[in-house]
Amino acid sequence: MLPTLVDLGVKPGSFIRKLDNRNHWNAYADGNVSQVYQTVAEKVFNSRDEIYSLWNVNTDQELYGIIASLTANAIPKYRDIDFICIERNELDIVGINYKQVCEGKCFYVKPLHYNAEINLSTAQQLCHHLLSHKRKAQRCKKVLTISILQYQESIGCCAV
Amino acid sequence: MVGLTTTLQIDYEGRYSNALSKASSVDALYCDPDLLIREYFLSPLEQRAVSRKTIISHIKTWQSVLVIVSWGASGKAQDSYDGAINLLAETKNFRLLEFATSGAATYIGMLNKGLHVNFAENCLEIIIKSIACAYQVDAKQRFALLSNFIHLTDRRVIKATIIDALMIISDEIDVTTIRDVINVFTTDQDEYIRDYAEEALQGIE
User: Fold this and answer.
1) Percentage of residues in chain A with pLDDT exceeding 90?
2) Stretch (H or E) spanning B9
3) What are phi and psi of B9, to 5 degrees?
4) Gap from B145 CA to chain A (nearest CA, Å)
5) What is the pLDDT of residue B115?
6) Test mutation, A25, A36, A51, A75, chain B, max B CBs within 10 A
7) pTM for this one?
8) Is the Cβ pair B45, A80 closer than 8 Å?
C-alpha cells in the first residue's frame, strides 16, 4: 500500500534532506540539545563543498518521484530511505540560501530539487533549532520503497 | 601501457598527503586503482553508476578497499557515503569484503582512543552496509562477516547499523537466523537499541 506524506511524517510544503543514516540524527535526539547539536551537525552536514540537496515536497505523488530519484543509482534499489524534514521558515531563520537546480532522473520532480549552501556554523544553528523542536529523522522503509517504485514503474517513471 | 607508480597516503580525515605520482601515460587510470577510485568519487552521480562495476573489478588490495572507505567517510565528494557503499556493493570478490572486515579493527581502535570519532564511525558504517549490500557475494558468507561486528563495540550508531544490515540481507537467508541475531539486541543495555531491534523484528514479521 502506498504511503502518504502524513504516514512518513512529512508536512506538505517542507523540504526533505536525505540522510546517510537516520541514526546520525535520532541516536542523539534524546540527549541534551546543547551537548549534541554540534555532533549532529558534523554528522549530517559533513560535505566539504558545503552544498546540500533538498527536495521540496507538496503531494504524495511528488514524494514518490523523489523516492524514485533517490534510489535511481542505489544498490539495492529496494532499501530504507532516511531523511529529515525542514520547513521553509526554518531555513530562513538561520539564513540558509537555497536555489532551484533541476536534478534527478524523475522528470516530474526534477524542478523540486534545490541546492542549499550550509556551512558548519549554520548547520549547527539549524540542528540546534530542529533538535530543540524535537524533530526526528524519518524512514521510508524498504517495504514502502518497494510499493512506491512498483507504482512509479507502472506509470512509466524514468527513474525506475 | 607505461608503468606508473603512484602512492596515495590518506590520513584519518580522508585527506591525501604525500601524493607522489610518476604517471607518464594516458593509461594511468588503468594502472593505479587509487586513481580510479578518485576519478569515481569526483564524477557525477549518474556517471558513478555507469562506471562502478568496472572500477571495483580493478580493486584487489586491502589498501584500496580502505581508500574507498576513507573517501566515503570523509565527505570530500558529493554523496560520498552512499558512493562508497554502492561501489563496494558491486564486488563479486569475497576477499574484498574480508579485507574491509579486517580493516574495521583500525576504526575500532580510533573509537576506543576517542580519535576522529565521526570519521571512524562513518568508516565502520560503510563497511557494515557494504557487506550487506554486496549482492553478488553469497549471502551466508556476508552474514558470517556481519556476525563479526555484533559484539565489536557498544556505540549506539554502530549497533543500529548492524541491525539495519541484517535487515538488508533478511530477504536472502533464513529469516529465523536473522531474527535470532536481532533478538540479541532486544536485551541491550541501551533502550534506544532495544527499541530499534524491536522495530526491526516487527518489520520482519
Assistant:
1) 91
2) strand B6-10
3) -105, 135
4) 19
5) 87
6) A75
7) 0.90
8) no
* Residue boundaries of the structural domains of chain B: 12-202
CB atoms within 10 A of CB B30: 14
Q: What is the topology classification, in CATH, of domain B12-202?
A: Leucine-rich Repeat Variant (1.25.10)
B161 vs A23, A72, A79: nearest CB: A23
B97 and B89 in contact (C-beta within 8 Å)?
Answer: no
CA B62 vs CA A145, B23, B59, B103, B193: distances in Å? 34, 22, 9, 8, 31
| pLDDT value of residue B15 | 45
A118-144 residue pLDDT tens: 999 999 999 999 999 999 999 999 999
Chain A within 8 Å of B179 (Cβ-Cβ)? Answer: no
For A23-34, what is the mean pLDDT?
93
Chain A residues at the B interface, defined by Cβ less than 8 Å, are: 20-21, 23-24, 26-27, 30, 39, 42-43, 46-49, 51, 72-76, 79-80, 105, 141-143
- Cα(A42)–Cα(A32) distance, integer angstroms: 16
**Cell 607522489 appears where?**
B20
* Rounded-to-integer distance, Cα B107 and Cα B84, Å: 16
Give the residues of chain B that fall short of pLDDT 50. Answer: 1-24
Q: CB distance from B76 to chain A under 8 Å?
A: yes
Which chain A residues have a beta carbon less than 8 Å from that of B163? none
pLDDT of B93 reads 96
Rounded Cα–Cα distance for residues A7 and A12 (Å): 12
Give residue-wise pLDDT tens across range A56-114.
999 999 999 999 999 998 988 999 999 999 999 999 999 999 999 999 999 999 999 99
The per-residue pLDDT for B203 is: 86
